[in-house]
Structures are given as structure tokens and as C-alpha cells.
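[Discussion] Sanity-checking designs against the backbone

I'm trying to build intuition for which residues belong where. Below is a C-alpha cell string of 773 positions. I'd appreciate it if someone posts a full sequence so I can compare it with mine line by line.
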């Protein structure tokens, strides 16, 4: 059962009731008008006296001479400013005015009466033109003839268009067309065509705008012409609901599981809402093509309308059942469903219940201890230790570099283990076999390695992968100590590249951040990476809570900045670090250059392949000439061989040179710049989806990998480097504040500290500019 179902607010029973309508006839609230086959016309206003609505709702009951087929309320008479009531009888169309005859009663005054010639009437629909102030009435007879009336005038009559039996009709004001559905065929014909065609009906078939065979018996037709909704036509058939455009094109179809009896349509914004009454005592509520609710009734609804019976009772459902019962209600809940049930009071022995509960708990505890399976020991447990060597064990190095010892301690149940180390240091294993520590089940194998810098280290990240028995794998991500990467040097005031980091907490002293180096100055120090001539300088401004890292070579800055950020966050867990400026032009230029090298390499590789094929062809020609015993190879053949050979060698040299710039060894500096770019953007609240590791482990070009990352963007199949760089710039600009951010001058601050800090810098600016391609 639905949570919200039909709650009956008002009901009445009118014998032989077959039609009803709602509208404003008196005051500013809706009245309910009911017509019967006996000719009884009932006027009700349930909202007049809400407390006594069943007794005081009746305003008028009058017997007319003929059966009432259909009712309508609207501005049908030009001489009347208010709405009037249109009553359709089998042979008459009568307009009535309803007025008050006292405080509690009303009277019905006949205004105009039209006699319908020919066959009896079947149904009618209002016809409203945009330029007309009065609503017309179109009456359809049982032989499908159409009669049009306006106030006291009978406008025209048109015979049937080869139709056998009538169906629902409607008028669409947007296209000024009459919609008929005789015989299950929906037809549309403009009113202007009806007015211009001859009375005999000849040529009527040619004047139809369109027709559509819906293959079912139509129940109701509604023309939808709300300003917020596309002009549409709703056709409710027995087994389907169709929605068409005003031109007859199908928008969508909703299949119904039960036979429909009637339909009511209203709009809300840009959506069309349908209320469909079915023969299984159910109301179906649709929002466009989506069913939003169903409600079960206690009767079969034959007609459904909505009405506003006062300020507090708007949009009330008004239903006419098959047993002549008129119900007014709403969708709501039944409060009695959510009341606590009344239970019989009974005595509870709490001591006995507590004793029983204790027995249950003891039984559960005993079963849990005996039946719980033993936890299987882990197959492989890996721990790592990093210790700096007191005396360097580095071998075959050009500089006096420091070394460290890495211990990988493996324990668990396994036969053999392999250790793989990935970093930028030189790795030498100590001993051919691991050392055993402990005995019995607690024994562990220790793998020792000596590590030192054989070249400049641009990335301090290290990965240790341990594989036991070829199946169990443990991965450890570590960071290399700074002392194995660089050594202390004098800080430099001037540098080409400067990176500033603002802190939300007071700046820390460098002796606290870098205790392994023990700098003499608390706010300035320098670190020189091994095998690199440039020094990376670090400055701390405690007055502005700012850290600054600068160097002539930005490649070496990633390791220092990453370590600086990590140590600041370790000492100040709640700190907020922000990169005050990100030099976009530096990194975008490097990306563009690398993409351009990849593109040139691809072009050069194609040229080399063509020259290789050409060389093979030239060799074939030369071999054919050499097979001759008498003729010497012509001079032009020798010239072609020499020229092709030289071009091939030159192309191979260019290809090797370009390949050295894009291979993993040649792209180390570019990888370091990407790592620094990603780190600075993360401090600027921009999450870049790649770093230097995007160059590892694949044979794809960087252009292809970046295109795969930005799948939502519109990139061509073979994008240019400038297009990819523009995409990255746009992505960064949408994610945070980038480019064009200059730092404030700190001349006043440095002047105050100059006597204490002789190495302090002055007039430091980031020099960042927006990047444009």
C-alpha cells in the first residue's frame, strides 16, 4: 500500500451522475457542477463552510428537461464579464448564468440556447483563439459532424471526414487546429481550413494537416499550450499514453498495465503532469515519462478533475465513480497508522528475565571461545631501517659523497624472498646471502644494502618491493635522507628561480628543521646536491611566516621543497602551507619543449624508415648491376648509393639524439620539473593528476598519456604541443589561483634583520607571469 493514498475530504452521491466539472462561477473559489442523465443539475461548494461541508455544500439543484451529456465553465458569452455554465444536451447547447439568490442559495438564468441540427450531440470542447476575447464551443455529434458556436451565433457546421463513430475532441490554440480521434485515428485540421471548405465536405481529406493511427481506443485528448512547455498533445488511450508535438510528431509513449478510464493534465514549470484513472481502482501520477506515484481507491473512477475549494484546499482531486459517487480528496497519510498499538498490561518478572539473559551471554561467550578459528599467521612481514654510515662506503665516485645502509628485515613463513629497490642511488648488496637473526619461529632474514649517490639525485622517493616465494608481495614507500643527496653550503642571496611558501603558523628555525646539518644561521642556509654546481638556498622569515627556496637550477629544488614541507608538517600538524606563487611559464615551457621533442622524434623516425626502405631499393639496384660480368655500375648508381647512405646515417644520428632526450635517462631533469610542478600546485590547492612518474613504465608518448588523463576535454586525435599545454593551463586556472601572483617586497623586514643576518636577501620577487599560447 502506498504511503500517500487518497484521503476523502468530501463526498456525495448523485443518482445517474455521468459528468462533472469544476470552475469559478461565484466569488473567487471553485464550484463543483454535476450533471445526470435524468437532467438533474447540482451546484456544490464544499469550501464555503468547511466544518459543515457535507450539510452546507449544496447551492442549487434543478431539473432540466433533457439529459445532461457534458458541462463546461468559461467565458462563452460576450455580454457577460464573468464565467457562465455551458450545458450540452442531446439536441441543445445552453448557456446559463449562475447568480446568488440569497445568502445560502443560488439561481440559474438561461442566457442563450442553440439547437443542434442533425444527429444528437456526443461531446464538446472549448475553442479559444488568441485574438478572441470570447471562448467558442465546438460540438461533435454521433455522426462526427462538427458545430461551432460563439455566444449567440452559430458559426458553421462541417460534416464528417469519412469517420464512422466519434471520439474525444480538443482544440489546440497554438496552431488553431481541431483535433478529432474518431475510429482510433487522430486527425488535425485547421479552423481556417474548416471555415473555407464547402459545406458538402468535398475535398476535406486534402485539408487535414496530419493524421496518426494510434491503434487503440482513445479515452481523452488534451491540448497543452503552456508558455513554459513545448506545445504538445496528450492522448490517453485504453492501454497507452501518447504525447505528440503540435505538428503530429511523437514525443514519447507510456504503456499502461491496466485500462485507462479518464485523464487530467496540468503543467508545472517545464514539466507535464498526468493523472490517469484506471479500471483497477488506481490513480497513476506521471511527471513527463516518469511515474512519481500511485494511489489505490475504493471505487472505479470514471472522471477526474482538480479544484480549489478555498485558500486551504487547493488542487483537490475531484472524482466521479462508476456508482455515481462524487469524492473530493487529497493524497496524504493516515495518522492512525502511526499510533502506538494499545497492548494489554502484563506482569514481567525482571529477576527471571535477567537470569535468563545471563545464561544466554555465558553460552554465547563459551561457544565463541571454543569455535573461533585461529588466526593464520601472516606469510610475509617486512620492516625497513635506514642508517647513515659514519664513514662513507661509496666507491667509484667523482665526489666525496655520503653513504647509508638500508636493512630489509623479512619475517614470516616463507622459503625464499627477493628484494627489489627502485631509487636514483647506487645500490650495492652487502653479502650474497641474507643474515639470520633470532631462532625458531621468530627468526628473520636481514638483507643489507649500501647506497650512495653516483650522480645527481632529483627525486628522494624510494620504493622497496619484497616478493616471497614468488607470490606474496609487500611494498614499502620510503624517502632518502638529505645527507645522502646533498651537503651543506653557503646560502646565496640572488637566484634565478625563487619559490615562496606561506605558513599559517610562526616560522620554524632551520636548526630545528634540519638538525643533521646544524646550520650556523637560524634563518638562512644552503644545500648543494652532489654532482651539481648550483646551491639551493633556504630562507625563513619569522615576521611574515614565510619560507623561501631559491636556486639557479630549479631541477634540484623538488627534493629540498618536498623535505621542507614534510618536516614543517611534522613539527606543526595543524599548519596550513600555501604556495604564494607558481611560475607557470617555467613548467609549461618545459612541457612544451618535451612534447615538441617527442613530435620531432616521431617525424624523424618516419623519415628514417623511408630512408631505410630507399636504401634497400638502392642496394637491390646495385646488386643487379654487380651481377653483370662486363658492365661496370653506372656513375649515377654509385652517387645514389653514397647519397642515400649519408642521408640515412645523418637521420640515424638525429634520431638517436632525440631519443636520448626522451628516454628515461635523458628525461630525468624534466621528470624533476614535473614533480616540482605538481608539488607547488598542491600547495596552491590545485590537484594535478600527474607528476614525473607519468614518464615511467610505458612506451606511450607523453601527449597520449595526457590526453588519456583529460578525457573530458575536447582534444584532437593528434593534438599539437601548444594545444596540450593550453589544456593544462586552463585546468590549473579553474582549480586555483595561478600565475600573475607577485610577492610583497620585504625590504623593510630585511633592513631590520640585516645586522643580525648578513646573508639575508633583499627585494625578492617571484617573477611569475601568466602563460599564454
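Best answer:
Here's mine. Compare freely.
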Amino acid at each position: 500500500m502506498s504511503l500517500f493514498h487518497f484521503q476523502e475530504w468530501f463526498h456525495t452521491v448523485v443518482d445517474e451522475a455521468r459528468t462533472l466539472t469544476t470552475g469559478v462561477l461565484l466569488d473567487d473559489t471553485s464550484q463543483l457542477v454535476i450533471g445526470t442523465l435524468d437532467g438533474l443539475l447540482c451546484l456544490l461548494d464544499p469550501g464555503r463552510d468547511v466544518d459543515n461541508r457535507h450539510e452546507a455544500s449544496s447551492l442549487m439543484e434543478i431539473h432540466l428537461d433533457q439529459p445532461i451529456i457534458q458541462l463546461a465553465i468559461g467565458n462563452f458569452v460576450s455580454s457577460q464579464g464573468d464565467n457562465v455554465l455551458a450545458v450540452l444536451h442531446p439536441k441543445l447547447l445552453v448557456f446559463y448564468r449562475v447568480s446568488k439568490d440569497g445568502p445560502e442559495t443560488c439561481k440559474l438564468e438561461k442566457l442563450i440556447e442553440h439547437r443542434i441540427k442533425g444527429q444528437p450531440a456526443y461531446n464538446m470542447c472549448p475553442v479559444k483563439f488568441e485574438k478572441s476575447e470570447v471562448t467558442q464551443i465546438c460540438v461533435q455529434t454521433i455522426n462526427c459532424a462538427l458545430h461551432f458556436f460563439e455566444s449567440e451565433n452559430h458559426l458553421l457546421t462541417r460534416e464528417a471526414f469519412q469517420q464512422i463513430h466519434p471520439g474525444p475532441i480538443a482544440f489546440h490554440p497554438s496552431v488553431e487546429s481541431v483535433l478529432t480521434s474518431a475510429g482510433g485515428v487522430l486527425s488535425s485540421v485547421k479552423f481556417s481550413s474548416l471555415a473555407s471548405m464547402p459545406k458538402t465536405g468535398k475535398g476535406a481529406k486534402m485539408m487535414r494537416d496530419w493524421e496518426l493511427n494510434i491503434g487503440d481506443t482513445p479515452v481523452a485528448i488534451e491540448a497543452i499550450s503552456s508558455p513554459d512547455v513545448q506545445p504538445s498533445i496528450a492522448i490517453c488511450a485504453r492501454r497507452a499514453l501518447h504525447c505528440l508535438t503540435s505538428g503530429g510528431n511523437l514525443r514519447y509513449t507510456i504503456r499502461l498495465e491496466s485500462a485507462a478510464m479518464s485523464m487530467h493534465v496540468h503543467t508545472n514549470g517545464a514539466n507535464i503532469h498526468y493523472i490517469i484513472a484506471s479500471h483497477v481502482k488506481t490513480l497513476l501520477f506521471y511527471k513527463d515519462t516518469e511515474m512519481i506515484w500511485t494511489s489505490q481507491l475504493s471505487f472505479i473512477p470514471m472522471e477526474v478533475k482538480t479544484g480549489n475549494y478555498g485558500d486551504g484546499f487547493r488542487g483537490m482531486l475531484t472524482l466521479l465513480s462508476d456508482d455515481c459517487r462524487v469524492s473530493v480528496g487529497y493524497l496524504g497519510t493516515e495518522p492512525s497508522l502511526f499510533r502506538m498499538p494499545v497492548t494489554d498490561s502484563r506482569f514481567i518478572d525482571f529477576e527471571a528475565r535477567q537470569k535468563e539473559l545471563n545464561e544466554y551471554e555465558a553460552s554465547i561467550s563459551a561457544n565463541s571461545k571454543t569455535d573461533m578459528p585461529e588466526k593464520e599467521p601472516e606469510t610475509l612481514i617486512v620492516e625497513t631501517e635506514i642508517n647513515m654510515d659514519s664513514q662513507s662506503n661509496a666507491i667509484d665516485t667523482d665526489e666525496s659523497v655520503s653513504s647509508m645502509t638500508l636493512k630489509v628485515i623479512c619475517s614470516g613463513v616463507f622459503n625464499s624472498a627477493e628484494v627489489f629497490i627502485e631509487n636514483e642511488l647506487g645500490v650495492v648488496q652487502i653479502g650474497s646471502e641474507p643474515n639470520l637473526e633470532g631462532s625458531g619461529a621468530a627468526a628473520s632474514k636481514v638483507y643489507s644494502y649500501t647506497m650512495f649517490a653516483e650522480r645527481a639525485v632529483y627525486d628522494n622517493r624510494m620504493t622497496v618491493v619484497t616478493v616471497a616465494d614468488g607470490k606474496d608481495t609487500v611494498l614499502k614507500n620510503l624517502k632518502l635522507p638529505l645527507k645522502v643527496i646533498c651537503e651543506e653550503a653557503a646560502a646565496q642571496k640572488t637566484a634565478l628561480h625563487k619559490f615562496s611558501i606561506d605558513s599559517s603558523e610562526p616560522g620554524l628555525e632551520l636548526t630545528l628543521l634540519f638538525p643533521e646539518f646544524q646550520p650556523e644561521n637560524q634563518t638562512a642556509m644552503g644545500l648543494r646536491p652532489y654532482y651539481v654546481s648550483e646551491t639551493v638556498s633556504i630562507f625563513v622569515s619569522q615576521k611574515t611566516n614565510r619560507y623561501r627556496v631559491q636556486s639557479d637550477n630549479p631541477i634540484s629544488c623538488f627534493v629540498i621543497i618536498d623535505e621542507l614541507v614534510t618536516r614543517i608538517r611534522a613539527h606543526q600538524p595543524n599548519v596550513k602551507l600555501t604556495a604564494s606563487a607558481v611560475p607557470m611559464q617555467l613548467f609549461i615551457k618545459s612541457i612544451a619543449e618535451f612534447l615538441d621533442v617527442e613530435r620531432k622524434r616521431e617525424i624523424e623516425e618516419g623519415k628514417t624508415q623511408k630512408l631505410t626502405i630507399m636504401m634497400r631499393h638502392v642496394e637491390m639496384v646495385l646488386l643487379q648491376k654487380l651481377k653483370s660480368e662486363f658492365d661496370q655500375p653506372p656513375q649515377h648508381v654509385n652517387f645514389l648509393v653514397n647519397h642515400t647512405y649519408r642521408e640515412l646515417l645523418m637521420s640515424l644520428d638525429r634520431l638517436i639524439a632525440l631519443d636520448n632526450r626522451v628516454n628515461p635517462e635523458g628525461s630525468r631533469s624534466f621528470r624533476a620539473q614535473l614533480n616540482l610542478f605538481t608539488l607547488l600546485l598542491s600547495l596552491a590547492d590545485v590537484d594535478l593528476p600527474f607528476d614525473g612518474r607519468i614518464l615511467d613504465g610505458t612506451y606511450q608518448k607523453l601527449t597520449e598519456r595526457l590526453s588519456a588523463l583529460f578525457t573530458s576535454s575536447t582534444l584532437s586525435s593528434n593534438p599539437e604541443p601548444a594545444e596540450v599545454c593550453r589544456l593544462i593551463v586552463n585546468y590549473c586556472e579553474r582549480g586555483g589561483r595561478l600565475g600573475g601572483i607577485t610577492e610583497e617586497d620585504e625590504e623593510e623586514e630585511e633592513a631590520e634583520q640585516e645586522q643580525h643576518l648578513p646573508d639575508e636577501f633583499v627585494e625578492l620577487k617571484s617573477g611569475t607571469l601568466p602563460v599564454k599560447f
